[in-house]
Amino acid sequence: MEVQRLNNSIRAYGHDLTQKSLAAFAALCKERTYAAGSAIFMPNQNNKSEYVLLKGIARTFLFNTQGEEITLSFFEKNMIFPPYVTRTKNGKSLLYGEALTDCVFAEINADDFGLLMIENLEIRDFGNSVLRQELLNKVHKEIRMASWTAKKRLEQFRDDFSMLENHIPHPMIASYLGITNVSLSRLRKSS
User: What is the pLDDT of residues 170-187, one digit of tens each?
Assistant: First the structure.
């Protein structure tokens, strides 16, 4: 595990761990590579991991009742997938995780991370920050979906993910924004 890349991800969440805490965290991580288009996790499959994206672009998504993909969130380098506790039930995944480009993750067993949080206050603070950020992201997205125009949602997407629009399929962005691909195309032409 390359500790510096892991540390960059931790710092992105506002934490600067001591060398001892960073080493304890890194010791539990395994570096995993996923090729573009491959599944990281899938609904109803066992999944006991936490994921720190060290390199690449990934997303979480589901299928709606009409069988259409709905992108829930995008992830870029130094971002952390939703915590295990929020994306699983009874140890099984509730959603899909997909590598959109070749990705490198620091993967850690959720139970091991939980034990480390109990014994290490710095790691506990970091873990709680990730959980709070996930909650904020979800609430802010719900507010945007309920009360913002599609144009304003696209502008926010561009603020949140400045280069993503040029690197991933536009239907995924449209589903994330809650609009059709045709609507996204019109919005892109008008802005």
Answer: 999 999 999 999 999 999
**Strands ordered across the beta sheet of 96-99:** 39-41, 96-99, 58-63, 69-75
Residue whose pair of structure tokens reads 């949140």 in the numeric block? 160
pLDDT greater than 80 at residue 1: no
Mean pLDDT of the chain: 94
Burial 9-21 (b: 16+ CB within 10 A, else e): bbeebebebeeeb
- The order of strands in the sheet holding 49-55 is 30-34, 103-109, 49-55
If 0-12 CB within 10 Å is exposed, 13-18 middle and 19+ buried, where does residue 113 land?
buried
Q: Could you tell me the two tokens for 25?
A: 């965290």
Q: Is the pTM of this model over 0.90?
A: yes
Residue 80's DSSP bridge partners are 52
Contacts 24+ apart (CB under 8 A), 119-123: 120/21, 120/24, 122/15, 122/17, 122/18, 122/21, 123/17, 123/21, 123/24, 123/25
Other Cβ atoms less than 10 A from the Cβ of 87: the count is: 20
Helices and strands in the chain, H and E counts: 8, 9
